[in-house]
Amino acid sequence: MTRLHDMGGRFGDGPVVPEAEHVKFHADWHPRALAITLACGSLGLWNIDTSRHARESLSPADYGQFSYYEKWISALADLLVAKGAVSQDELAAGLAMGTSALSARKLRADTVADVLAKGGPADRPSDVAPLFVSGDAVTVRPFAENRVVPGGHTRLPVYARGAKGRVLRVHGSHVLPDSNAHALGEAPEPLYAVVFKASVLWAHTEHPADEVVVDMWQSYLEPL
Amino acid sequence: MRGIYASLYAGARAALRDWTNQFPAAHDQFMPHDHPHHNHPHALLPPDPALRVKALETILTQKGLVDPAALDEIIDTYENRIGPRNGAHVVARAWVDPGFRAALLKDADAVVSELGYYGRQGEHMVAVENTDRLHNMVVCTLCSCYPWPLLGIPPGWYKSDAYRARTVREPRKVLSEFGVTLPAEVAVRVWDSTAEVRYLVIPQRPIGSEGMDEAGLMQLVTRDSMIGCGLAKVP
Description:
The complex is a heterodimer.
Chain A: H1 29-41, H2 48-56, H3 60-65, H4 68-82, H5 88-93, H6 112-118, E1 137-140, E2 164-174, H7 177-180, E3 189-197, H8 198-201, E4 211-217, E5 221-223
Helix pairs in contact in A: 1-4, 2-4
Chain B: H1 2-21, H2 26-30, H3 49-63, H4 68-81, H5 84-96, H6 98-106, H7 108-114, E1 124-129, E2 134-139, H8 148-151, H9 156-159, H10 161-166, H11 171-177, E3 187-192, E4 197-202, H12 214-218, H13 223-227
Parallel strand pairs in B: 1-4, 2-3
């Protein structure tokens, strides 16, 4: 990943522009991009962490200028090639060269509702014993980087690295994205909601009582 | 332990190298020289996003990897069937039924499942309640995680760089852009959705809604209020 996606706390962005509730898409191709991405996800060639990592691996120039759904479809094309489902020649030609051996896995219209309703839960039994309980003081580890794969996927935002906080909720054990995104196994471990005073994270806070909560896997944390 | 990490590390290095090495020729062979970007396969598709999606759909349909009827079904689901009225139903019921409210705050998964609102991107729900002293807001700084089964697909602003970047640092300024100003005695708690847990804000029941039934109250619950970027409407 490039780190460009990790934008919490960044300066220089403009105002947030509210929009009416009935607006679902902003261009005719947006719903197609959404649907193709979801349909390909159900082929079972990758998991949600792989697909997030593929979007984060777009070049900084692309990530910066692509709209939301452009990121989705571009990362999708990259993943389809990486997994051997589509060839570069096919992308270049805009045409298929034969049918896929994976076509039996194709998402069918009559199973869409079931697949969406089933979802993809991330909680798992784990051998890793919880180190913390609600109320415990913790420190976030000093590097917001994947500890196993250099430049690999992580869900630890840079703004929280090294920060001191307190466990607010224990979520149970969840799949570790840092491992799962790289086909290194699900490696489930305890997950916590950790609360930080805004004044611990930012030099100029809006209000002394404000807080930020970040979901953190156990390996992102150290006891205080 | 060190041995395990070393072998994981080596495997991961190899995987990363494989990933990078798969696309070495793409740029040289296919890209016009004025295209500044690298050698990712997506650059082989037309740059215009509408054409890019169309080309991808054509290839995938011809290969038998996607069924256009399934795509239509997915789109219809998120355009017409799954949206913020689901969340409004949950909030309105929490306002009128103390037992439901307590169950929702204790174990939201069980409660939303019972109402048929479990599903993709809402597998691990947590409901957080606004009070006279605490206002909750939800963001995903790393991508755009959002409780789809309860609120539908996220609005454009939720996915914007501005919202992702600013909400954790200056939530009150962001709120002001939605026309909301909080009193000084109310703390803001921003939830950054970095895991697969999804947060639903239970806004405060507005003054003047006493005696209204669940169906009437649902009309007061806006999508933005369930993200924490608005307040419920006053009747």
